[in-house]
Amino acid sequence: MEAVTEQGNNKLYQNWELAKAAGFSSTPENNTSLNTVGDNTVTIRYHKGDTDLSQSFTVNVKDLANQIPAKVEILTKAGELVKALQLYRSSMGRKTGYAFLCAGFLFPEV
Hints:
Elements: E1 2-4, E2 10-12, H1 16-21, E3 24-27, E4 38-48, E5 51-61, H2 64-67, E6 70-75, E7 81-87, E8 92-95, E9 98-101, E10 106-108
Antiparallel strand pairs: 1-2, 3-4, 4-5, 6-7, 8-9, 9-10
């Protein structure tokens, strides 16, 4: 996480534990799954002494039922179709941050 001070200096926190120790918190808590379809507000707060600041942003969670089946097209740099895949939930599994297909193609999870 990177924070900018009132003087315009950047302070980089290598992980959330270091940011928490410096006075940051979040709502919802860090590592909370956002399971509610639609807009979800995330707020980051900083509190130290008399200083109390916060910044919020919105994360839009899509309904999984409307996302699958999905069509994935693999294109060349020139835009020519190499392969089109129709994805169904039954043909997908989960593996540490990746959606994978039985056909052997590996795609980063979005």
